[in-house]
Amino acid sequence: MDDALVIFTPSGKRGRFARGTPVLTAARQxxxxxxxxxxxxxxxxxxxxxxxxxxxxxxxxxxxPGALSDWNAVEQRYxxxxxxxxxxxxxxxxxxxxxxxIDVPPESQLHRQVxxxxxxxxxxTMNPATRLYYVEVAEPDxxxxxxxxxxxxxxxxxxxxxxxxxxxPAVLRRLQPALRKGNWRVTxxxxxxxxxxQITAIWPGLHEGGIQGLAIDLGSxxxxxxxxxxxxxxxxxxxxxxxxxxxxxxDLMSRVSYAMMNPGGAAEMTTAVQEALTRLATAIIAEAGIxxxxxxxxxxxxxxxxxxxxxxxxxxxxxxxxxxxxTSGSLALTxxxxxxxxxxxxxQVYILPCIAGHVGADAAAVALxxxxxxxxxxxxxxxxxxxxxxxxxNRDRVLACSSPTGPAFEGAQISSGQRAAPGAIERxxxxxxxxxxxxxxxxxxxxxxxxxxxxGVAATGITGICGSGIIEAVxxxxxxxxxxxxxxxxxAEQVGSARMIPQGRxxxxxxxxxxxxxxxVITVTQGDIRAIQLAKSALYAxxxxxxxxxxxxxxxRVVLAGAFGAHISAKHAMVLGMIPDVTLDxxxxxxxxxxxxxxxxxCDQEARVAIEExxxxxxxxxxxxxxxxxxxxxxxxxxxxxxxxxxxxRKVVTLPEVSFNTGGGGDGxxxxxx
Amino acid sequence: MDDALVIFTPSGKRGRFARGTPVLTAARQxxxxxxxxxxxxxxxxxxxxxxxxxxxxxxxxxxxPGALSDWNAVEQRYxxxxxxxxxxxxxxxxxxxxxxxIDVPPESQLHRQVxxxxxxxxxxTMNPATRLYYVEVAEPDxxxxxxxxxxxxxxxxxxxxxxxxxxxPAVLRRLQPALRKGNWRVTxxxxxxxxxxQITAIWPGLHEGGIQGLAIDLGSxxxxxxxxxxxxxxxxxxxxxxxxxxxxxxDLMSRVSYAMMNPGGAAEMTTAVQEALTRLATAIIAEAGIxxxxxxxxxxxxxxxxxxxxxxxxxxxxxxxxxxxxTSGSLALTxxxxxxxxxxxxxQVYILPCIAGHVGADAAAVALxxxxxxxxxxxxxxxxxxxxxxxxxNRDRVLACSSPTGPAFEGAQISSGQRAAPGAIERxxxxxxxxxxxxxxxxxxxxxxxxxxxxGVAATGITGICGSGIIEAVxxxxxxxxxxxxxxxxxAEQVGSARMIPQGRxxxxxxxxxxxxxxxVITVTQGDIRAIQLAKSALYAxxxxxxxxxxxxxxxRVVLAGAFGAHISAKHAMVLGMIPDVTLDxxxxxxxxxxxxxxxxxCDQEARVAIEExxxxxxxxxxxxxxxxxxxxxxxxxxxxxxxxxxxxRKVVTLPEVSFNTGGGGDGxxxxxx
Lengths: 674, 674
What we know:
2 copies of one chain form a homodimer. Chain A is 29% helix and 23% strand. Chain A is of the alpha/beta class. In chain A, strand 23 and strand 24 (437-441) form a beta hairpin. In chain A, helix 5 packs across helix 6 (265-288). Chain A is elongated. The first copy, chain A, starts with a strand and ends with a helix. The model of chain A is unreliable at 664-674 (pLDDT under 50). Chain A binds chain B through residues 139-142, 145-150, 167-169, 172-173, 175-177, 311-314, 316-317, 321-329, 333, 336-338, 354-357, 620, 622, 625, and chain B through 139-142, 145-150, 167-169, 172-173, 175-177, 311-314, 316-317, 321-329, 333, 336-338, 354-357, 620, 622, 625. Chains A, B: Pfam families: RACo_C_ter, RACo_linker, Raco_middle.
């Protein structure tokens, strides 16, 4: 008989095969992306396919009922035990008996794509560095003595055409029991980079729990991690903890100072962050209910100071010009190298490359996630955290810098500030006529002037104001005429509202007086305004510096990244002059883009190669030594700005032309110079 | 002017070079083996050469006085500071100005040969996996930010044409201080295997302390280490400690049993041996007075059980057929992987391959050192320890086995036995007429019947009998007719000597009665004879098994290896029938051949490749399952042997035809079966 024509969808790959050829074999020979862990033994079920029957005019074939071999006992056993979707066949069992069209469903594709939520973002292609391989290993033979590992390597070569991998001592210790428990059948997790490979875990028999990895965003203030399945890219757990280094200094430079002033201080901070990573990993893995031995990889993104402190490198050089990194390249390490326990003993760790002494692997991760280098229009990406990373560019050129905004945007150094947690005011409006506030509190779905609000917040109370809340409050005060362009708060007389409370020589705006119920009095003080002004000036100055470098006066769109960026109102941010003027619909949030970048690098090893290349083409601008940064910083102190007109903003928002500077106190002038 | 002819000796390499070419440059272009750490900057002095002047008829040139450029200031400064042998020039400073013959002295050759003491052994070629490279690194530039490590890699590429190496976190931590202390000049230790490389240590400026490595022979009873310079191969320190695992079991199988019977027992033994290695390394390095950071490599050889216990692998599989090793291949690890501290933090560890479940990396090391695969005649190599490794072969074929001799040869399980230490009887003769013994004691240069002996041993006393002593004692008893061929000791009446002391139903031979002075009574008991018989039978049976396999009845020569082998008298060993019959001058000692093999692998990375290949061609014979082993074992019980005639031995030694079996006790018959 003639060979049969086989057409795979969705790839469209086609070829002719001798009748009797298993579908999996045909797929492999054609390079069709069809998964298999067991190598065609009918036990892993990864190679499920759906044959199509009838006429396929598009492909020019008609598929007869007998085009595939009959449903067999292996398939039936699998279906009885695990279930199989109607119409599905196991690719390793079904044999080609006639012309046939075979669909490979997404879940059977090894390099399937994971759709990300953000509409603008690219999908993640699943191509993890670690994969599972099931093998049958020859038993030891005294006539031909060889090690169990050597026979495992032979099996990997014979059954998977894999070159001889390395094996960590921790895995070697598990090898003999696993082989014997699995009756000489084992599943190994093989981590491959380039041609070399390393076995990072082993299980008796066919391992069905999959393998997972951690994508870790190690920030100065918080450490966030996603636990991702390395089979389908699913996020199966997320969690965060405070960075315990905060006790050594709130911002990066105070931690660098701590290391410089205290012998052993850097090592102390290294231990603290390594232990925190282990606690976080342990908690997230326990909560997901998976075996720690399955967590075979981690990808970490962080700023340069955290990068060095994690690796036990004294960050002293990062505290002074020329801000030299010990290493800027990506790092392929082991979990043990960074003191990370609670995962597979031989787990591999990848740290993204840094861009410069002030622009770290977190910025590289944002670049990986948001891909400014692939953007047609000019995009400004701002990752707002304790330090802001700023990227500006398009497919022609990308620039980057970082700017020391400090933690005010996160609610720190704010009189009534607190972290974003239940009880915190997160949104706020001020009636431009009555000057009365209405607000929302994290943990309650109602605005403060809606019925039921009091009951809604009874459990948490109203405890303070978080980062997004303070930004909205300041912007609303500016829009309501309670604050002038220089950042001075008006008095009760000047604005005609009893909510303006005198505080020494300045004033504060009373948002909420909970003192009757033993709760806090929540105000926005002149000091809070100044803190926000400093932070936003730094952010805006950094962005302007990049725009100068590129020779542009405006950008096409703005992306706010960072966990906090997700909660910032574009309008309020622009009233404050945090970001350059664009139409509001051109401001989007990318969520935790650094964390997403870490996830991409975890799921797709080619993304690692890509970002390693990309960072070489990103032009770095050092804000700390650039005189224009100071000029931009001073000009950006006003709300929204002393000289930039913000025409798009003024189309949608009216900013009252008020001035509360009575000429006497000079508070504003003094503080502006601090 | 014409190019000048340059001839290098001893290599004979020659070529023509433009006048003004530095000698080092010419040497490199011709592939002449001329060392340099500083890369031609005139500071390391490794490239010293001796120009020859006058007529060289052999080379067809006459060298004029101006053939090299004048002695320069760099050379003068070096000579003033460090001294330079008369006539020597620095190859990087001296330039070729005319035809010249240039001798490269051995100490300037990178791949110099180290002459080993044993006359039969091959010289060691210096080609260590780790080498020093001095580089000048570009300073950081904020305009072009890159990590210090990346600039170091660029310097290695530019100045040494080296591919980008990896760097361990422990070394990365030292990078920035070293670069700054050395004013952007550093020396790195680069460990290269194949194309890849790893920086394992770094020093500011030109590092002049060299680098060293440890060659470790990890035995069941003792752990011995040599500290070797990786520049010239010199052994700069040697030391040994007891293997602390002895408390878990004297021989290997009792340690395997301990691991099987006690949960956590294997881990306990792993910790014990890892700690002992660290103590040994620390002591030997401290004694040599070198900086631990310079010790960048270690090579370890050991038997399979020690191999697994060192790596933390449960040795249970080695205690039962089919004696499967977890891995038989060589291992490239880090010091941290095997819990070895006290050396460079990123030190690399190489463990030689094992040959089979009972024939370990120590046997591979013996094969590397004694090279039976390169021998023209048929050589039997016996590494005598608690377990004996036996190799038999020539360039056509090599066989290997191990045989469980137990520790009797090391003085253990012997009534008056002790380790070879001051106070131990190490040599012994018995007058065939008077049956009186004379002996020598470790720590005293005199025989016991020489004047001054009593004073000579006053400091140590006479404390027991060590391995070589008990072998000589038993052999001498046999030659003096105090012991029959079956191993029975005669009574005082039977042999006519008061030194034969009754002990229950058997007798003992009194060597020394120190009880008057409060010292021990040293005897050789019937039990001691039986222990030696068991040990020597196992050894001989193993050798015979290999001879059977090869189809031969005799061997051309015998090499006794092992620290103990160095002290065995060939004649006495053959009287006991420990080794097959050959003329005595064909029995030689190789000293600690396993340790030498470790040293070779430490000094020459190509030797690692060679032995990895060689072990694949060694045919392994498993004594434990071979029925003929039992037959050979029983036949070998007699002294020297029940059936093998030992004609060469009988040419030089008379063995009295006595028999002390009175037929009643049956002690000998009973014990022989134990």
